[in-house]
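Hallway conversation turned thread

IA: we were arguing at lunch whether anyone had actually written out Xylanolytic transcriptional activator regulatory domain-containing protein end to end. Turns out nobody had. So, for the record, here is the sequence (370 residues) and right after it the structure tokens. Reply here if something looks off.
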Amino acid sequence: MIRPQEASGTDHHQKSWLFIQNALEMVNELCFGPPDLLGLQALLLLVTFLLGTSAENPCGFLVSAAIRICHELGLGKTEGGSPLCSEGIQHKRTLFWIAYCLDRELSLRFSEPPAQSDEDFSVTLPMEAPTDSKYSMPTSDLSGSFNAFRSTCQLAIIKGQLYKDLYSPAAEDRPLSQVIASVGVLDEKLQEWKRSIPPEYQPEKAVADGHRSKISPVLLLLHYSYFHCVIAIHRRVVARGLSTGTDLLEKDDFTSSPASLSNPRVLLSTSLCTKAARASINLTKYLSQDNTPLFGSLIYYPVIASMTLSWSIIRNPQDAYRGYNLKLIDRTEDFLSSQAFCKAFEGIRRLVKQCAEYRSIAEAAVKATM
């Protein structure tokens, strides 16, 4: 987004929208004209921008078009026998995985089926970070580097499985024992993914290292995505009214299906949800509208985290941490109200309004217990 130094927040939002409107005038040509890589890149940039405004419908249409173009160009296939040089192959693979990651993010964020099926492509995960990108990070022992792009793609695969097993229409009527089993499997995959990251770049490390003054936007997005996945996975247990491990063990479903509890972390789902929400909100101190790319996309995560904490208070207004959680919720709202970006787009305003409504209900629930 263009942000002229001399312009006010309103001015540069208006200017940026003029550029976007110009780009949108070309959408029909990009979507229905002959497919090419430049057109695909333009569509992916539009999706990235509109995702930051929480504009669900245009994002869904554009990412579906981008996925279709990927297949028309053969980007979803293995590169065996390709006449392209290694850089050309890497570029095509990178574009496919960017489209895939956006598709999976939209699917999980808006609870909509993804455009790309995992059975319909054979291209391998990227072994190298995109050329001249910030996705390659040196490790502290200097033994190599962390490929954050590959890690982002791996997390996107987990997001796809998460949606399919817990949020798709087919998952709505699954027995509780099957839901719990899926939660356990997905949680283990997520923890295995986290362990594959060098220790200094793992999600909880950023929250624990309070002395850090900043985190790269790439790492910030990765960490936000991780905590959001934790919430999305374990929220399915909490939503069934199971606040403690005892509640879970008392359910008849598990007397005949003890294998459902193969991952003991499912007994801690309520605690894991609230801890992930707090961690996500604590990352807000690294957010800055002036120097953080994809600011609008990142805003979504602390908003959802705040709503998660509000929901935990509503469910248990006598929780010992209710005061601390309310302070975190207030901090999130204070931050959002100070950002001009959050007032510029209807989708973001709607999210912020929901956040405030949840907080009001949570405060009322606490007062009712006094």
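OS: looked through it. Confidence is low (pLDDT under 50) at residues 1-8.
IA: good, adding that to the notes. DSSP finds 15 helices and two strands in the chain.
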